[in-house]
Amino acid sequence: MYEKFYGFTEKPFQLVPNPNFLYLSTKHQNALTYLEYGLSEGSGFILLTGDIGSGKTTLVRYLLNKVEKDIEVGVLFNTNVDSDELLALVMQEFGLTSSLASKSSYLDIIFHHLIERYAHGKRVLLIIDEAQNLTLSALEEVRMLSNLQTDDQLLLQVMLVGQPELKRKLNAKALAQLSQRIGVHYHLGTLSYEETREYIAFRLQKVGGALDIFDEEAMDLIFRASQGIPRVVNLLCDTALVYAYGESVSRIGAEVVSQVIRDKEGFGLIQQGQVDELAAPTEVIESAGVVSADLDPRIAALEAKVNWLQVQIENQLTQANQLGVQSTERLIGELSGLVTKEREKSEKLLVERGKLLATIEAHQRRTRQESPSEISLVAEKTAPKSVPDRNAGQERPPQPKEKKWYQRIRGGTK
Predict the structure, then answer these.
(1) Quick check: 257 pLDDT over 70?
(2) pTM of the model
């Protein structure tokens, strides 16, 4: 609708998880590195968690476009199923059929399929998206699938993708065996303020649009309302483009974005009061139990603001901890590089030292081979010659004796 007006080749902020529009922030790049590492190392279970709309599905689809040809991939999106239905979905995803609708029959057919893939030098990867919806029995069935292996080779890799509730669910005692088999885990965080600005510019550039369609105040409001969640950023930017197009506005400012935020608050897509940092949200006041007839309204509002600020501080600390982990990983990488360089320098020094020692030893051998007469001749030639003293044998004239100090004084008084 607005593509031609703004010179876009297509809509830049669609809500579908399009891997061609994946913006690799530092967090997304780290997540991709962890997933690729888990696949290359043959980890039995790989876990990716993240908040709603953080870009997990987009990242997985991006990864699938890079998967090697020797990996057969099956993806499950429908996770509101029990354990028996889960096995049936796995059968369907890998194109397998069974004349008997029983768990034992499903497992036997899946096992033979994995053996056949292994015999042809291929690996099998099962990706389960929205895995937080799986029941404990279904997750336990997933663990049973990982038992299908040879003496020294896993026949099936499983990647679990879900919201933070999935991690909490895996901490249950009933799933202890599954948790212990997770070789790689990464939690995908939200975008920072600078990353949100770069995310918007990246998407506009992908469709050939101007990078300054949203002014500074507009992008500031978008970040504060979205809290750096890519899906919410897409929703706000797309709606703002529709509003601005309706008013024939070529550059979007804070007025348009503020209107979008007010409209979206009514549908519960954005938390009320999320943009205004000085106003405490009503739900925070009620949940904290601050509102009371016995309290002065001003005191109640002040306490509500304090409680809300505490929540914001905790969120900031969480993000700071995540940045600390990333900084530590980056520091470890830099230190490893320095160690490698120092090791190379040490090896070069050892080689030079060996050459120097060999040269000294050869010189010493040549010196020992010379005759004593030659050495004495060289010594005579090189010894310094003595010079006769011209004044030897001549008597020196007597030196006048210096008078003592009191004699000079007395002589002067005469």
Answers:
(1) yes
(2) 0.64
